[in-house]
Each structure stands twice: as C-alpha cells, then as structure tokens.
C-alpha cells in the first residue's frame, strides 16, 4: 500500500494577524496547481470558470490539465462552492450541480480506517470546521496513524475518496482543494 503525498503546510499557513483567515491550495491529483490563495473576506466563492464572478477562479491557475479525468471533473465544478467563516466555524455551501466530498478532523469521530469523508449534495451546506473541537483535538496522539492537522480541510469535486470509495486517498481525486485555516497565534 502506498502512502498519499501530503503537502507540507507548516510554512504556508500563517496566522490571523497576517490579515487572512485561511489559504486555499488547488490540487490535481498529487500536484498543486498555482499559488496559495489568501482569504481575508468573511466568505469566498470558489469556481472553475464563470464570467463576471468574483472569488477564487480555478480555471485561471495554470496550464491546460494534463489528462482527460481532470478535464471532465473540472467541467463538473461549475458554480463550485462558497466557503464562509462564521463565529469560529467554517461552512461550505455546495453551489455546483454535482456533489462535493469533505474531510475535516473536527467533523468526525475517528475509527480504525481513518476519518470519514462526507458527501455534500448540490444546494446543501455543511459545517467543516469548529474551533472549539479543534482545540479539544490538538495534542491528541490517538487521532490516526501519521500526522493529523486539525486546521486543515480537504474538499474534492465530484469524486469521493476513503474507505467507502475506490479511491483510498484524496490524491487519487482529479481535482481537490486544501483549506489551510489560520491559527490564532
């Protein structure tokens, strides 16, 4: 079994004092595309390619996708999602016509097979981060095998991963986001 490639986020996270509450990284399989996108407004729209929209446009990040699976998934992103910070919580609103899949340490209990991945249908929302739960989880060594970042959320577009899917790791998903939440340091 091969282990997933995980981004080293320790140098890029920053803090709320830097003027942003999170940074976004867009990935295609195991490759990060473009630079980190800092978010300072209370909410941000994340989409692939919509004219006259404001927010984080994934379509402008890099060269043409390297394979057909990525191209097909990018077409499904459409209106994408809205990421919103609300009083110590972070919510995701799915504006796409396809499901998104979310994983966050503060959303789930831990089991022998790792953390659960939650499917969010079009038109629905889910709380993906809770600062109180993150504080409770920090310092725990029994979360799972390997490192666990309680201030990181992962979202894939149209394709799920984990114990219930054929893709075991998010790096097998064609298009996904890593949300690096700023710490209060």
DSSP helix fraction: under 10%
* Backbone CA Rg: 15 Å
Beginning-to-end CA distance, first to last residue:
37 Å
Helix tally equals 2
Structural class, judged by helices and strands?
mainly beta
- Stretches where pLDDT is under 50 for at least 5 consecutive residues are 1-13
Shape: globular
Question: What are the SSEs and their pairings?
Answer:
Blueprint: E1 22-28, E2 31-39, E3 43-47, E4 56-57, H1 68-77, E5 81-86, E6 89-94, E7 100-103, E8 118-120, E9 125-130, H2 131-137, E10 152-157, E11 176-181
Parallel strand pairs: 3-4
Antiparallel strand pairs: 1-2, 1-11, 3-5, 5-6, 6-9, 7-8, 7-10, 10-11
Structure description:
Helices cover 9% and strands 32% of the residues. It has helices at 68-77, 131-137; strands at residues 22-28, 31-39, 43-47, 56-57, 81-86, 89-94, 100-103, 118-120, 125-130, 152-157, 176-181. 31% of the residues are buried. It is built from 2 helices and 11 strands. It is mainly beta. Mean pLDDT is 81; it is low at 1-13. The protein starts with 21 loop residues before the first strand and ends with a strand. The strands form 2 sheets. Strands 2-1-11-10-7-8 form a 6-stranded antiparallel sheet. It has a 5-stranded mixed sheet with strand order 4-3-5-6-9.
